C-alpha cells in the first residue's frame, strides 16, 4: 500500500479530487484565469503544458513522493491544483505545495478551506508529525497566505534551487507540527466562519 493513498476531500467551498489526465483542459482554462504562468516567482504550467504537468505529477505519485489533486470550486469548476509532496512515510511528514489557484478563486476562502482539508487529513488520518509549506522568499502573497494559516517560519534556504528562468531561488520554509494542529484547526474554523 502506498502512503498516502489517493482520496477525495470535500468541503463547503471546494473539493480536492485525485488528479487525472482528463482534468487537463479544465485546468488549462483555470491557468488562463489571471495568466498565472506569467508570474516569475511561481511555477504554474502554461495552458499548452498542462497535460505534461499532470503527467509529471502522476509520475511522482507512482514513485511514492507526491499525491496530487485537482481543485474544484463549489460549482464544480476546476480552479487549480495542489499536492502532498516530498512524502516521507517513515517520518510521517508531507509538504503541501505545488499549489496554484485561478485568479477568480483567490481570496474567496477556497484556499483556506483546501488547506484545512489537507491539514485535517494529514494530522487526523495520516498521523503526520509535521506538515511543511515552501515558497519563493519573494512570493509575498503566498507567504502571507501561509502565515495566515498559522504556520511558523522555520527558515530561508538560500540559493536553494533554480527557477524556470535560471535565477536562483531562496526558499522560505514553514511548518505546522502535530502538537500545534488543534489550535491551528480552531483558527482555520474561525477564519472560514468569518463573513466575507
Structure summarized in a few sentences:
With 196 residues, this protein is α+β, with helices and mostly antiparallel strands. It contains five helices and eight strands, in the order E-E-H-H-E-E-E-H-E-H-E-E-H. The protein has a single domain, classed as Aminopeptidase, CATH 3.40.630.
SSE map:
Elements: E1 9-10, E2 14-18, H1 24-32, H2 50-62, E3 66-73, E4 78-88, E5 93-101, H3 110-124, E6 130-136, H4 140-149, E7 152-162, E8 168-177, H5 181-193
Helix pairs in contact: 3-5
Descriptive keywords:
Aminopeptidase, acyltransferase activity, transferring groups other than amino-acyl groups, eight-stranded mixed β-sheet, Putative N-acetyltransferase, 196 residues, GNAT_dom, alpha+beta, single chain, 31% helix
Determine the structural class based on helices, strands and strand pairing. alpha+beta
First and last CA, distance: 41 Å
Average pLDDT figure: 92
Give unreliable regions as ranges: none
Q: How would you describe the oligomerization state of the chains in this entry?
A: single chain
Keywords: Transferase
Organism: Rubrivivax gelatinosus (strain NBRC 100245 / IL144)
GO molecular function: acyltransferase activity, transferring groups other than amino-acyl groups
Protein name: Putative N-acetyltransferase
Could you please describe the fold and organization of this structure?
With 196 residues, this protein is an alpha+beta fold. It has one domain (9-193): Gcn5-related N-acetyltransferase (GNAT) (Aminopeptidase). The chain is built from five helices and eight strands; from the N terminus they run ββααβββαβαββα. It has helices at residues 24-32, 50-62, 110-124, 140-149, 181-193; strands at 9-10, 14-18, 66-73, 78-88, 93-101, 130-136, 152-162, 168-177. The protein has an eight-stranded mixed β-sheet, sandwiched between helices. α3 (110-124) runs antiparallel to α5 (181-193). It is globular and about 40 Å long. It starts with 8 loop residues before the first strand and ends with a helix. It comes from Rubrivivax gelatinosus (strain NBRC 100245 / IL144). Residues 14-180 form the N-acetyltransferase domain.
Amino acid at each position: 500500500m502506498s502512503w498516502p493513498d489517493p482520496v477525495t476531500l470535500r468541503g463547503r467551498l471546494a473539493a480536492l479530487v485525485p488528479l487525472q489526465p482528463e482534468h487537463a483542459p479544465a485546468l488549462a482554462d483555470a491557468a488562463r484565469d489571471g495568466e498565472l504562468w506569467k508570474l516569475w516567482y511561481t511555477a504554474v504550467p502554461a495552458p499548452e503544458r498542462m497535460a505534461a504537468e499532470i503527467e509529471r505529477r502522476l509520475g511522482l505519485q507512482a514513485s511514492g513522493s507526491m499525491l496530487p489533486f485537482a481543485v474544484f470550486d463549489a460549482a464544480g469548476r476546476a480552479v487549480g491544483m495542489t499536492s502532498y509532496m516530498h512524502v516521507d512515510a517513515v517520518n510521517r511528514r508531507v509538504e503541501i505545495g505545488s499549489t496554484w489557484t485561478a485568479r477568480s478563486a483567490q481570496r474567496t476562502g477556497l484556499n483556506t478551506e483546501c488547506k484545512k482539508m489537507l491539514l485535517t487529513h494529514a494530522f487526523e488520518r495520516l498521523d503526520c508529525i509535521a506538515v511543511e509549506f515552501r515558497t519563493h522568499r519573494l512570493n509575498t502573497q503566498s507567504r502571507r497566505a501561509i502565515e495566515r494559516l498559522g504556520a511558523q517560519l522555520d527558515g530561508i534556504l538560500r540559493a536553494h534551487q533554480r527557477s524556470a528562468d535560471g535565477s536562483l531561488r531562496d526558499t522560505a520554509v514553514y511548518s505546522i507540527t502535530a502538537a500545534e494542529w488543534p489550535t491551528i484547526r480552531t483558527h482555520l474554523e474561525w477564519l472560514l466562519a468569518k463573513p466575507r
